[in-house]
Amino acid sequence: MDSGRSPVLLPERTTFDEEAQALLRRLLETDIRADPYPLFNRIRAHGPVWMNSRTVVFSSRADCEAVLQAPGAGTSGACPGLHGPAAEAAFPESVADLLAGPDPVEHGRLRRLMSHYFTPWAVRDLAPQLRGLVDDLLDSVASRGRLEVVTDLAYPLSMASISRVLGIPAADRGWLHRRALTVSRSLDPHLALTGQHPPGLDERRTADAELGLYFAELVRMRRAAPGDDLVSALIAAEDKEAGPVGRDAAAVCRLLLDAGYETTVNLISGGVLALLRDPALLARVRRDPAYAEQVVEDVLCTDPPVQLVHRHAAAEMRVGDTVVPRGTVMVLLLAAAHRDPGQEADGGALRHLAFGLGAHSCIGSPQARLEVRLMLARFAQRVSGARFATGRPTYRPNVTLRGLRALWVDADDFGSREVPWPVRAG
Question: What is the pLDDT at residue 247?
Fold first, then answer.
């Protein structure tokens, strides 16, 4: 990973790149949310950027990949320099250390317990339920002749899916949705880029505390009356595994909600947006539903639902030409890395880091891919004459979990659920 730059021996001796720092702060401004990629490209041209002596931002493909694969880089909850107390609470230290921290034994223990619910065959068994839900959602808007993709399709599909895994009652889903939306802005690197806490911090702390209490109560209920869900399985494992697995069950719920719910929503709506922007692509998916799989991968690369992540250096490490001291927060701009002209194509196709790499890759990625693939294939099959209804789509203010606020679509017809599902849809 020789970039030709002089190595940085000590951050304290680094001359801070004020122009690059100003560009990074520009990421927080909402007017760029519809198309932040020119700005990401400009930031990447500066190479690694130190915001202060203990926060460094990486944006090249090589640097981001190196950090994601480094055994000493984890997402420890003790990173207040990046997000502040709200996010430190949003990622409970137990699950952060176990799933993304540097301890391979503890990481493997909890990941192994979770993996049963995300194996290829477990995800495949979920497909009939998801197909029925997709048809239900399209039926619910057919009489209007218009739909709003985010609210009518993306949110209910993603919430129903995560609720099935965790055993969340249907009556609680709206409540969880509202609080998850509030907490999601805690992931934005406001403190790292400005040195100040973002507005709305108290509201997010309140929502975070409410979610913590909710999942603690869910664990208590499942301990008293086990069900066929991940929470019950984690509690049952206490008799077979060393360590307080039941205590971690509530943290796992938070992790799956924080990392899996909103990101899948953004991927679904982003995928539909890609189809609407390219009528030829929409027609291709209609002819060949299996091509929806490729659309999902392209969106993950070119318009990722997770624009950046952070890692914490558990020990001193070298990333390319940069020496990163122990305790440093590393911000990885995935949206910039994906468009790095220096990245290698894999068989002519773009590669992405959207689900992480190696031992810490996203365990729920097969399920997320299935949800989006099914939605795109059925949308292409059933929705005739799909077109933008209200001009440009609108985006939520989130930096990290970038996604549409609303995407209104008019259609000539929403078809019938009696039309057989395409065999190759998933």
Answer: 57
